[in-house]
Write a structure and sequence with these properties.
Blueprint: H1 3-11, H2 13-20, H3 24-34, E1 42-47, H4 63-72, E2 77-78, E3 85-86, E4 89-96, E5 99-104, H5 118-128, H6 131-136, H7 138-141, E6 147-154, E7 157-162, H8 169-172, H9 181-194, E8 202-207, E9 211-216, E10 228-233, H10 237-245, E11 251-252, H11 260-264, E12 268-283, H12 294-303, H13 306-312, H14 343-352, E13 359-365, H15 370-384, E14 388-394, H16 397-405, E15 415-421, H17 429-434, H18 451-459, H19 463-479, E16 483-496, E17 499-500, E18 515-516
Parallel strand pairs: 1-10, 1-11, 13-14, 13-15
Antiparallel strand pairs: 2-3, 4-5, 5-7, 6-7, 8-9, 9-10, 11-16, 12-15, 12-16, 17-18
Helix pairs in contact: 1-2, 3-10, 12-14, 18-19
Length: 518
């Protein structure tokens, strides 16, 4: 946001906030007419989507929502390939088969002035394990379903209990953004979305479905360095790029390689960050179809020239993959290589599987940017060269979510776009346990022969032994591909050169360190 529009907004900020966050087209016209730089005291961000539960972070654990929540909330721990890092929890210790003790960060203040302590964590965990909590906070608890309680040891120590032994508890707690349960009681579940309170670097001033306005949390343990931050809901890529070009926004989240010229020509730079996800065209195995045969799934993997489309479509910004975790996560095996492009081998496998004349498949994909659409079309074109005709049908993200929750809605579809994500634990077992094994409620992937190894990885506390289990699992999923392994997803953002210290890592943006100047 810039120029005359900025000045008007500052004078009548509260009464005009909703209109200031309205449609991209009108705002872009105003910004273009003004042609002035953004205020040094204000950072404006264009985002493709805002959290579905407004400012209540227990309603939405998607990485897209997380980018906004990270402004206002802190996590107990932050994931890394080496294990969890300190957040509001400074240290943790396994004190028994089913218990962990966490030492909490002292002198942390919520946005409303309350001092954070162990009761906030214990009350939250215990409430989420009630019937009400399990229903309302289902998106958070599905990642923490083995955690069944907590108790206060002292003001800065909390003990967490689990149903079964679990070495991943400190990392799993990273999915939980810390809320003020006292405030939750006062305003209610829905009220918390409209009037959120966290401990993060920025304090929400107004939170709507059109946008979010926040101010620096000056009394926070790591206060924001910018007076005001505004997040605008700009679902269309073209709107975000146009807003960036007209100096209405300072950061355009979630752009693509083709946006480089527009960004760099508007006093900006492309910021690329690795993300702990692997993109696939998933293949059903729980239905009678050709992809139930592992030879067909391997043929599909050999048929796709991943190096070529990554270079031509994605600007070479990422790498192919062939295992259930990205290179930034624990359990990744550097010596397990992606499937090479080998059409002859693909045809041979199809013949061995009983499809010498090829076969027809239907794929449903979410292609919310043109780059993904081009990737899926190229996959289809490559597969056709070996006799596999893939009809690509585009669906919306809500469509996909509905199908995931009720797989009968996929109908005759045999492939669908999905990923194997590892945040917040940064461990390959996060996605395998949640969605891509017999443990998943969907069971679209169910390898009974690897279940014992999965159970061992989930309960082994010895780091060296657990690494062995993870290697075996990664190798098995490579040899028995759950779909077409494509590439590691990357985050690409357009950032004005006036914005400094913007350094996202593993889907975590360091908002507390970001500055902006003229």
């Amino acid at each position: 946001m810039t120029g005359l529009y900025t000045g008007i907004a500052k004078r009548v900020r509260k009464s005009t906030f909703r209109s200031r966050l309205s449609g991209a087209a009108a705002a872009i016209v105003i910004a273009a007419a003004a042609g002035l730089p953004a205020s040094a005291a204000e950072l404006t961000i264009g985002h493709s989507s805002l959290p579905k539960g407004l400012g209540n972070p227990l309603t939405d654990t998607s990485h897209s929502a997380g980018f906004t929540f990270m402004l206002a909330y802190d996590f107990l721990t932050y994931g890394s390939q080496q294990g969890p890092r300190a957040g509001l929890a400074l240290a943790w210790e396994n004190t028994g088969p089913l218990t962990w003790r966490l030492r909490l960060r002292p002198e942390v203040q919520f946005h409303n002035g309350k001092i954070f302590d162990a009761h906030d964590i214990a009350d939250l965990i215990n409430w989420m394990n009630t019937e009400e909590g399990l229903a309302k906070a289902v998106n958070t608890m599905r990642n923490m379903r083995n955690i069944n309680g907590a108790r206060v040891i002292d003001p800065l120590t909390v003990e967490v209990t689990t149903k079964t032994p679990d070495p991943m508890v400190p990392a799993l707690l990273g999915v939980m953004k810390v809320v003020n349960m006292t405030h939750m009681v006062d305003v209610g579940w829905d009220g918390y979305g409209r009037d959120p309170v966290g401990t993060g670097a920025y304090k929400p001033v107004k939170w709507t479905f059109d946008g979010v306005e926040l101010e620096a949390h000056k009394s926070g343990w790591r206060p924001g360095l910018i007076d005001t931050v505004v997040v605008r809901n700009l679902p269309e890529l073209a709107s975000r790029v146009a807003a960036f070009q007209s100096d209405q926004i300072d950061i355009a989240l979630g752009i693509v390689a083709d946006s480089a010229a527009a960004v760099e020509g508007s006093n900006g730079r492309m910021v690329v960050s690795g993300a702990p996800q692997v993109l696939l065209l998933m293949a059903f195995q729980n239905k009678d179809s050709p992809v139930h045969d592992v030879r067909v799934r391997r043929a599909l993997n050999y048929a796709v020239n991943k190096e070529a489309y990554i270079s031509a479509i994605m600007g070479g910004l990422t790498v192919p993959t062939g295992q259930p975790g990205a290179s930034s996560v624990n359990g990744y095996q550097a010596d397990i290589k992606p499937y090479p492009y080998d059409p002859a081998r693909a045809r041979s496998l199809l013949r061995a599987a009983g499809y010498p004349d090829g076969l027809d498949l239907i794929a449903e994909v979410v292609a919310n940017v043109s780059e993904l659409r081009d990737v899926y079309q190229q996959v289809s074109a490559d597969a056709a060269k070996v006799g596999i005709n893939i009809e690509v049908r585009e669906i919306t993200l809500p469509d996909l979510i509905a199908r995931v929750r009720d797989t009968s809605k996929f109908g005759e579809t045999t492939l669908f776009s999905f990923n194997m994500g590892s945040e917040p634990t940064m461990d390959i077992m996060r996605s395998i346990n949640a969605l891509h094994s017999c443990k998943s409620f969907t069971k679209w992937i169910c390898y009974e022969e690897i279940e014992d190894e999965i159970d061992a990885a989930n309960t082994e506390f010895d780091a060296e032994k657990r690494r062995g289990h993870l290697r075996n699992i990664a190798q098995f999923y490579h040899d028995n591909p759950p779909g077409i392994f494509l590439h590691e997803e990357v985050g690409v953002d357009g950032v004005k050169n006036t914005v400094k210290n913007y350094n996202p890592v593993n889907r975590v943006i360091n908002w507390h360190q970001v500055t902006i100047s003229n």
